[in-house]
TrEMBL record:
This is IncF plasmid conjugative transfer pilus assembly protein TraW. InterPro entries: TraW. It comes from the Bacteria.
Length: 192
């Protein structure tokens, strides 16, 4: 084992203290300046307005138009399972590769009524379809202000965010009514 002698090192040149601005103090100061000038309150009002606008005007369903040519078609919700589906206790409910239709286990107990709330004739038809049906109904907007309609109708109104449901079901025109028919879903795109 070799020992290295310790040597006292003198300063090799002038030293200076490290001076950095305190980032938190700068942020506080900036916020206080904006608060005094009223700009902070303005920024808060703008943020609230943007949030309210986004809430009242969610992303619409794309490529869905007003019904021009009525059509009726069926959707089979059967899926081929890629991996086993297990229950909460780890038991296998559905084997990998098995075909599974959710309607074998759970019924669609209500009809789904898709429509565009910006079109008064579609809103009127949806209200009539819902009122005339013996089955419970779930109104689902593809566009428009669902909060305003919910307030007007005094009932819950749903919104198909970005059109994920209409895409999955193959709906291209609204208004459309979806009902269970055996182990399939019957979809009617109807004239408003």
């Amino acid at each position: 084992m070799h020992l290295v002698p310790a040597v006292a090192a003198d300063a090799l040149g002038p030293t200076y203290p490290i001076v950095e601005p305190d980032l938190l103090q700068d942020i506080r100061r900036s916020l206080q300046d904006k608060e005094r000038s009223g700009k902070l309150a303005l920024l808060q009002r703008e943020a609230v307005a943007r949030s309210e606008h986004a809430m009242r005007n969610p992303k619409p369903a794309r490529d869905v138009v007003r019904t021009l040519t009525p059509r009726t078609f069926y959707f089979d919700p059967t899926v081929a399972v890629g991996q086993p589906i297990t229950g909460p206790g780890g038991e296998i409910l559905v084997q990998a590769g098995q075909r599974f239709n959710p309607l074998d286990e759970v019924a669609l107990r209500q009809q789904l009524v898709f429509f565009d709330a910006r079109d008064a004739s579609q809103v009127a038809l949806a209200a009539k379809v819902i009122a005339d049906s013996r089955a419970p109904s779930k109104p689902i907007l593809v566009n428009g202000d669902y909060l305003a309609l919910q307030k007007r109708w005094q009932r819950q109104v749903f919104y198909d965010q970005s059109g994920s449901l209409v895409r999955k079901l193959g709906i291209r025109q609204v208004p459309a009514v979806v009902r269970q028919d055996g182990k399939r879903l019957r979809i009617e795109e109807i004239l408003p």
